[in-house]
Amino acid sequence: MRHRLIVLLILLGSMTLVSWSGLFPSVGKGSPALILGFLLLTAYCIAFFLEKIRLPQITGFIIGGLVLGPYVLNFFSTESVSELNFLNTLALAFIAFSAGGELKLTRFRHQLKNILFLLSGVTIVVFTGVTATVFLLSTWIPFMSGYPSMVRVAIASLFGVIAVARSPSSAIAIISETKSKGNYTDTVLSVTIVMDVLIIILFGVVISFCQVAITSQSALNLSFLAGLMIEIVISFVIGFFLGKASVFLIENIKVAFPIVLTCIGFLVIKFSHLMGGYLHESHNIALNLEPLLICMAAGFTVQNFSKHGDTFLLKMDRISAPIYIAFFALTGASINLDVLRTGWFLGVVVVVARIVMLMVGSYTSGRLSGDRPLIYKHTWLGFITQAGVSLGLLSEVVRRFPEIGIPIQTILITAITLNQLIGPIAFKFALEKTGESQAARQ
Amino acid sequence: MKLLIAIAIMAVVSVAGSKITFLGRRLPLGFRNILFTGSEYIFIGILLGGMGLNILDGPTLEMLQPFLIFGLSWIGFLYGVQFEVRFMRHLPRYYFSITALQGTITFIVITGLFYMVLNGTAELIGSSRLMLSLILGATGACTAQSAIAIVNRNYRIQNRSLVELLRYISSVDGLFALGFLVVSLSMAAGFRGASFSVQSFLLNAGLSLIIGIVPAIILILLSRVRFTQQEFLVFIVGAIMFNGGLAIHMDQSPLVSGLVCGIIVANLCRHRLRAMEIVMHAEKSIYIILLLFLGANWQPTIGPGLLLAAVYPLFRITGKTAGMWLAIKRFKPRFPAPSSLGLGLISEGGLAVAIVLDFCMLYPLYAKPLITIIIVSIFINELLSPRLILAQFQGAEKL
Fold this sequence. Notes:
- The complex is a heterodimer.
- Chain A is mostly helical.
- Helix content of chain A is 80%, strand content 0%.
- Chain A has helices at residues 2-20, 31-51, 57-68, 78-83, 85-102, 105-108, 112-137, 142-145, 149-164, 168-178, 183-215, 223-253, 257-283, 291-304, 309-318, 320-334, 337-369, 373-376, 388-400, 402-433, 438-441.
- Chain B has one domain (31-394): Na+/H+ antiporter like fold (Up-down Bundle), CATH 1.20.1530.
- In chain B, helix 3 (40-48) crosses helix 16 (283-297) and helix 18 runs antiparallel to helix 19 (367-391).
């Protein structure tokens, strides 16, 4: 404890000396390396101290990034954080591969009924519950009050659909940190990951509805659903072949394959975005492959269609720590406290509504599916965290509806930030309560 | 976008490449010298750079600099962490003396000869001539191990003590080369004003040595209490990255501060072997990244630069031969050692590349001639060195 405190003081002292003293005018070239090294070590130390008060490490990394970042101690600027954004894509590729690899068919086949009940129950309850709550409050929400009720329903449904999204990366990080295993862990992880796929379909449906209701540009066209299904199927097929290629890499590159896989995943993400844009601009074809789905399918293929599943997870886990720390600390550093200040009240309302609906949805689904009370009483705690996917969907909302998008973004970023802070704590608590974390097992 | 693709390609090439490089394939010696010592990655760098596919163009390379900083800091650390005084005491002390004298004479010969040539030919101001000569002296002082390894693997050699001495020198003389790099960088800092400032020289030399102490203390303190292997990876990656960033932020060399950090960790950290295991794991990948950088940065021009590139290997051979001859005369090894043993030390590789990239990052003005000289020299030396090494061992039999 003492040693880490000294390290923290040395790090803060050195950074204060180089950033604020003006003794060493930076040539600017080293900033990203300096910031990343500083973030890795400092966020690690902060997480270490917060762990002593039973907070999960990822909450510590996020808080570390937030405190050191542009809005509190200002050791680095928002521009510096955006310069390191490519690391988020790399980390997402890594996380997507790991998430797919965690889905062992043999492990959750016997829980299929519970998972299906949870997926449908929680999705319906959270989506309708949050939509209804926001709609009921809409006459008091300044940017919504002037619209007719149909438009207000549409806007409320955007809140609803984003409330359904979860964060597989956080779930995996917490499971990996607490070394949890068991039915509860499998259920929460499986539902979170499958939900990541379903949310894309649901979001497509809702966006199409909003397009009609808000901008009245076109009639409600359900043919887009077929297009969406084609995109998902193509993503799965590409993911399967990528998985087979990954098996080849595992067999031939052995130790270092996680880095190669992460880079390939990174290329897949970038090329999917590029190809989507190119096809849309030059041929007017709307084919948006889902890159995270491709990487997840690849991880799933390695786990379930090769004999290297366990090696794959083990090796990925070995290099995971710096990736998770960098990813979550940068997430923390990107939290805009000014936005939090303006949108906190409605954000809190959305968070509360979502948590209540998660409780109702998971409790009811669990009871109906005949799950064990110990599990269904705690399932909702594992679903609170939100992060990358939710923010990605939110940016799509802003892109499509610039006028109402900005206030929606302000409120939902507050909600997502709060969920990201509360979620890991709640999930860790649930893993201990159900006796599935390593600490509880011992 | 180009940046992101460049990052991914470099990472894939370096990691995948590290598994197929440096292997003993059954190929003709000349071909093997180029292909399996890592020199092929210079070609790949050229292909990816401005002269080829233009993926690693100027602005992209500029944006990739944090990776270069990290790589240089990593190499410096890796080099330093091998210098555990307790372990080095097990080897004969005169090995170290021979290495020191050989390295110093090589540095002086190359620097002196180059300074004379530049005085007569190049259109450079006085301090630039000296800087270029000093940095070439520093790169020339170190020896790569690849050619010695190739010969050792492919031939049965009777005089094992001589092989051991060559391997020792090629492992340790980089320490002196890095010392000469500190001198060069400090001279450059001294020349920044209107006239040479001794104060700036000393301040720079002191600062470049002090910076490495901070991350070393951090690493030692973090590893004093129980930790997992994943946490240790965070400590190592974080400390090396912090070290590189801090050095470049203060306009110092990440390579030198990494070396200092590594030496301190080697002697004061109880987990030095674990640290070495982690850094060695990525060694080949990092060297490949440096070679890619070198190739991509190359902008050859027909002119005095090529002439300098042609004479540099000659000066280096002269320096190595003279240095080794004097060292053997002075310290007399306890086994037969030919007086031309310096010819067995002309292989040039990783550390020389790292020194050039490190210097060019801080002083981009020198990049064009330095990179041309070092690339030409690497190819010439890699082609010649196995045969010259072999010539030092009478009665060596092919396996």
